[in-house]
């Protein structure tokens, strides 16, 4: 297990009780380096959406626990936020929540001379997704060929 994965798992175990107590859902934990800074990002959600006060509550409680445990020796910036509209679908619960919704899919390799599709997510499993791209036209896309899949949104 990499250092990054270890940090993410330990952080997840610290933040889950806080989220359960407040009826929030953990969407993702990531430890990344960007522009010379390390970031520990926690993405949370709840029915009706997350507020800035929700993020602040989780951030304060988690920050105290991280200071106590002190398992990340490097300096980092803690960020707690809502997942946002354009977040990628990563976990099984993301896919389950998105059944029947419109998604954007980018591929590594073309299918029918296309690398990008938008359609309704009909089903998924570990091997593939089924995407309704036109009424009554469903295509199968191997998950190994998916570079990015996220909820579609219009402005």
Radius of gyration (CA) equals 18 Å
Give start-end ranges of low-pLDDT stretches. none
pLDDT averaged residue by residue: 92
User: In DSSP terms, counting alpha (H) and pi (I) runs of 4 or more, how many helices?
Assistant: 3
Assembly type of the chains comes to: single chain
- Beta fraction: 35-45%
The portion of residues assigned to helices is 25-40%
Order of helices and strands: HEEHEHEEEEE
User: Based on helices, strands and strand pairing, what is the structural class?
Assistant: alpha+beta
Shape: elongated
The largest sheet, given as strand count, sense and whether it forms a barrel, is:
5 strands, antiparallel
Please, could you describe this protein's structure?
- The protein has 155 residues and is an alpha+beta fold.
- The protein has two domains: 3-81, GMP Synthetase, Chain A, domain 3; 92-151, Roll (SH3 type barrels), CATH 2.30.30.180.
- Helix content is 28%, strand content 41%.
- It contains three helices and eight strands, in the order H-E-E-H-E-H-E-E-E-E-E.
- It has helices at 3-21, 52-69, 92-98, and strands at 25-34, 37-45, 77-81, 102-111, 114-124, 128-134, 137-142, 146-151.
- The protein is elongated and about 55 Å long.
- The model has no long low-confidence stretch (mean pLDDT 92).
